[in-house]
Batch of 2 targets.
Target 1
Amino acid sequence: MSLDPVLAPAHRERWLRRALANRSFLVGLSIASLVILMALISLFWTPYDITRLAVANRLLGLSAEHPLGTDHMGRDILSMIMIGARNSIAVAVVAVAIGMGIGVPLGTWAAARGGWVDEVLMRANDVVFAFPSLLSAVMITAIFGPGAINAIIAIGIFNIPVFARVARAGALALWPREFILAARAAGKGKVLITIEHILPNIAGLLLVQGTIQFALGILAEAGLSYLGLGAQPPMPSWGRMLFDAQTRIAIAPHLALFPGLAIVITVLGLNLLGDGLRDVLDPKLRRER
Amino acid sequence: MSLLAIEDLTLSIGPTPILKSIDLSIAPGEVMGLVGESGSGKSMTALTLMKLLPDGARVDGRALFDGVDILAAPEAAMCRLRGREIGMVFQEPMTALNPVKTIGEQVAEGIRWHTGANRPDAEARARLMLERVGLPEQKFPLTRYPHELSGGQRQRVVIAIACALKPKLLIADEPTTALDVVLQKQILTLLRGLVEENGMSMLLISHDLAVVAEMADRLTIVRHGTVMETGETSRILSEQAHPFTRQLAEASTHVPARARGLEPSPVSEPLLEVRDLTRNYSLRRSRVFGRETMFRAVNGVSFSLAAGQKTALVGRSGCGKSTLARMILALDPPSSGSIRFQGEEICGVSEEALRPLRREMQVVFQDPYGSFDPRHRAERLVAEPLHLLNQRPDARRRRDLVAEVLEQVGLSPADMDKYPHEFSGGQRQRLAIARAIITRPKLIIADEPVSALDVSIRAQILDLLADLSDSLGVAYLFITHDLTVARAITDTTMVMHEGEIVETGPTEVVLGNPKSDAAKALVAAAPNLKMSLEKAVARATRD
């Protein structure tokens, strides 16, 4: 990884100006905020109550009352997508938090300690990496039972080595720097140096990785619930909506279209946000377009 | 008829003016020295000639090269010109080569591109060229990669690439600034030889008058993007008519005036005592189960330092100076031997036990950019060693302490709230010194503290260090490859070569009358303005 973890501070005051000039950052941020806003609104209000089934209204097309139509049980699709966003975001946030919360301390510890600790941790990392993550998540939820909690844990476990690697690579590039040597000459221990100097300087890297993992988490959650291993009904989720739509794709294609679009747009938005964030934080990597 | 004629060249990048009406001309076969401080527009002048300016640059004026107006030439014409008619040698040999291509390929590349030669022919020419720059094929096969070469060898490859097609003009932008003095001498001699053999012209850019003086027929001195003075080297140096020229010349040979401090009393217990210190590094194994090979960076070094004594540790790059410094600072454990500081052993001692010793021993590093966490403010950076005090001062006391040391190093207490990037290189080095003295240490280890600085700034920092040693009575271990620096500030000099200390003595004696080969080489290679002037005058009268 060739990312210089240190944000060139000469550009810091121009951070905001550069962020506002970065198209992918702005588009990504708007999409992400929109999705989050939708999820937050769904906590208080949705156009329809989705626990109420109205079979008479089943498979309605797009209309003023139901902007995105209704599903096979007569539930409003817009309402379901709003609540599904809440579910997706919750799963992805917690999974990223698990990955960061465990991965970053492991990675920075490996970098600070070196020697056999580093070796053992990184080889363990490689072992986790060797498993195909989505398949293993399927396995974990199949063994421990389907449900949102188990999906979160399964996705989170595979985020740990990603963050451990990024944190270690960033920290390793910093340890030989002279300001770290100066801190050591000032008698600061490895923990203190990691907290005071290493973490703030790799925060940008982690933030960018976090956005990307967040998008991957949403995808993974959709995949798991599509297989029926994620959130259980009646809790709606985008993956599950896709599954339900599958058999009716010929008569009501909008059932598959909208949750599919929701997934694509959210993931795209988060990836744009991650890309833009990296450019904003580290303009050296920016390719002029 | 001059080969290159720049007239009224003006350059601005965005809203910032970089060059203001530069005039410069180079005759065929002439070496022109371009001298100025960093940020004076030297490199931008060179890049303008190559038309390799950054985006957003606006150029006005005229630059005629061999009858072609460079500023008006289309990109395709420039591509033919670059490398073929104008060669360029960059400052940083570490980054000027492509790490994934062999040196043979990199030299042959330009030959093939510009002459349409086939691969074997181009390779044969590359072979000859590499041999000419001192990398004969028997010792340095064309299949070597840049990382397998040292800094000086890499710079030779860069020169081979630049000179492979015998360009009419060679631009050398600070070609030796990243190298130690001995390599500097070798590279300059090589450049001079190539230029004379092929009748090339050269534009030699440097911030150090002494480096350029020996090489250049004529000098152009720039400041803030404006030409201050231009003319024959011998005339400029002997007359030193322009005040800025005089300032540069003085900075280059600067020796801080200092009260001869009290001679350290020899009876007292030494502040620092190093005995039989050795440090091995294991190299990569050649086979998985092969024996590890060891590289001995420091080999059986012993010396002692009295309180208040100023000692220089002089040696070429890679001789183990910095490794030795790190071991004394207890940042790197020695393989064997002992280090006693104030009578206490520091090897193999716990970090807790080291704390009182660390307070008495601080460090100033070379790189004024890398030695500060870019995310902290000056107050926090300078106050970092206060962590070592048993009683941590409260916030107000801390600000007072920081303000005090900032004043001592010539900064203002108001600078406390700035971030490191808001300081210039020289100011940052002052900041580094402030950090080093805040705990009132007995010993400061300075690892090449001025070699990344312009000569004029270097003189100021040396003055500051000399003043502080008088007022605080602190001992220095001053690590440098530059003898003028050692001469300026220290009483004792140790010469280090390939991990061993080969010569020790009073600074004047070691530098005036070196005994070991390593010391002789260093003394002979040191740029010397006075001698350069004599040579330049001799050249001028001979012609």
Target 2
Amino acid sequence: MELPVVKYNRSHYIETDTGNKVSRKSVIYGSQNITLSGKTIIQAGCVIRGDLRRAGGGQTLVIAIGRYCLLGENSVIRPPHKTYKGVFSYYPMKIGDYVAIGENSIVEAANIGNHVQIGKNCIIGRFAIIKDGCRIEDHTVIAPNTVIPSFSVYSGSPGRLVGELPECAPEMYEARSKEFYSKFMAT
Amino acid sequence: MTDQIAIATGAIVCADTIIHGQVTIGTGTVVHPQCRILAEKGPIVIGQNNILAECVTIINTSEEPLVIHNYNTFEVGSTCAGRSVGNHNVVEARGRILSGTVVGNHCVVGPMCATAENDTLEDHTVVFGETMNRRTQTSNPKAQFALYAKHLKYLQDLLPRYNHLRKATA
């Protein structure tokens, strides 16, 4: 299935040297603690909480996002929190390459692998780990601390395994992410 | 209607929020950016030491006041339009408390779950799952409260460092 060309007004997006396209209507806090590896699209209304950082000094990276990712409209990306050995802290979140997050989804995962598709209106609970090449269908609620194995399809509330993806899925998602990026054009 | 916003000293209310009407926010309460607190007719009273995560909507469309007591957590994207909320409740991500609802103490509204309109949640009720099942909570609330107290303390220290705050008015 071929994706349609999406046109946007050049003044509504900021394009960085590495090809990231960040909507001016997105809300990003603590931007010094966020890294985008390149060619990532952040759409309008997206909220990214880079200010919820780890307790104590030292390493301050909060959110690392890979290449060719898409963060849909009004999605919320915030790092997970817990107490460990009696100390409360937020922990960094890592998102791999070719990850698409649908509209209105809330993500508090610890780790998202490469080639992951997350649908619309999903809630990904705290410290969930999503391995490479998965699909989370629309309106899914993933419980906190869930580990989602590679090539699985999750759906429902709470999210359960409903199917598996073929071996070619990562290539498909990679091609689709690149196609979406190339067809996301300024006017 | 003119805005009458009373923020107690010690409350952390980010500047990036929409607050309308007659709103009182108690000491120790943390309001993350992007929250909306809309008192359209009657007033909204938020007690002490609550946490309102981003994109939370607290709305009062009735004439009567909406009272939220102490130590409640509203997670990302949740909505509260009820009549009153007790102490130590948790509304998970995108949970909804619909208009006229009275929530007791130690209740949990699960992610994407909603109460009915003009409903009453007894103490320790848990609303969960796709069909909004209900059960009574039996776990020890003390452990949860210890985590909550640490979370609140951490946010009270951290948020002012990265966000502009509204000034206390009371």
